[in-house]
Structure formats: structure tokens, C-alpha cells
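Hello,

Our lab assistant flagged a job as stuck in the queue for most of the afternoon. It eventually completed. Since we weren't sure the result was trustworthy after the delay, we are filing this so someone can double-check. Below is the sequence as submitted and the structure that was eventually returned. Let us know if re-running is recommended.
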Amino acid sequence: MTMIDDIETPCAVIDLDRVERNLDRWQGYLDQHGIANRPHIKTHKLVRFTRMQLEKGASGIACQKLGEAEAMVEGLADLGPL
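-- returned structure --
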């Protein structure tokens, strides 16, 4: 296990449990109010996070640039057409 003091900086450190809780809370709110969720991936640009959002109930994703869309399509090809 890597200790926080051993990580070279700058470095993004992500608490995946917190991400999971935040996604659950956000999607729960949207579901409760009948609002579709199509998150923009420009903030994280991570296939893993996009997959988590889709698994939680997002109806799709939004991309700003062609390269972002290409990366998502390649990384999420097993989900079928996006």
C-alpha cells in the first residue's frame, strides 16, 4: 500500500468511497424528481467514472470535444452504442 507521504506531487488523490456516495446521492435526487441525468465528462474525463455514472442511472453522457467522445466510445464499447 502506498503511503500518502510517498506519492510524488502534484497528484490527484481520489476517495472512491466518497465518489460512490456522491454519485448515489446525486442520482437519487434526480430519480426522486424525475430528472434525466446526462453528465458532462469534461470534469473528470475518466472512463471509470463515466461507467460508474451510467451504472448509477445516467441516461447518457455529454462530451465537449471529439477526442473526449472517441475515448469514451473506445472505453465503453462493451455497453453498446452510446
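-- support follow-up --
The delay was a queue issue, not a problem with the job. The result is valid. The chain has one domain: 8-79. DSSP finds three helices and no strands in the chain.
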